[in-house]
Amino acid sequence: IEKMTDLVAVWEVALSDGVHKIEFEHGTTSGKRVVYVDGKEEIRKEWMFKLVGRETFTVGASKTKAAINIDAVSGFAYEYTLEINGKSLKKHMENRLKTTNTWILTLGGTDYRVVLEKDTMDVWCNGQKLETAGEFVEDGTETHFSLGDHSCYIKAVSSGKRKEGIIHTLIVDDREIPEAVE
To answer: In which compartments does the protein localize (predicted)?
Structure first.
């Protein structure tokens, strides 16, 4: 395996199907550009005459659009910025906090990362979209699914405050799981 000597940037991106690692190699003498997603080579360009520019690719199971921008800062210094769905990584992360809930838990020695996409009510676990069943209950809704032989549901209840909106809680085997901050 060729050593990544021109590695200039590494990013971690949390998506519904998992946390993905994006690595970028930029050879400022050869103009080489290589993009790796989760260790797998997605783009390789050798001998690029232009050292600045943009590389676009997709990340994860949902084929989320991503781009790396290469900008000259001064002389031979370059700046690399990652965009996810047309937003800076920072904006993407802020947006995810509003549109998703994430829980990380261990059941019977298995680690699970459960993500709720609030706009669609899709539930993802360890990279897979789960089969769910929604039901209305007295004070809100419950979205039922299972993790292994554990019965789970996400309870959605109005906070009663407009700014807070709906509060989502993960219940596994009648136990509340605290939300994770990624």
So the answer is: Cytoplasm
Look up the CATH number of domain 99-177: 2.40.128.180
Indicate whether 74 pLDDT > 70: yes
Q: What does the pLDDT look like over 23-39, one tens digit per residue? A: 999 988 888 999 999 99
pLDDT in the model for residue 47? 84
- What fold is seen in the domain 7-92? Lipocalin (2.40.128)
User: Mind listing the pLDDT tens digit for each residue in 97-138?
Assistant: 899 999 999 999 999 999 999 999 999 999 899 999 999 999
The domain spans of the chain are 7-92, 99-177
Give me the sign of the Cα torsion angle 55, 57, 59, 64.
positive
- Cβ atoms of 15 and 3 closer than 8 Å: no
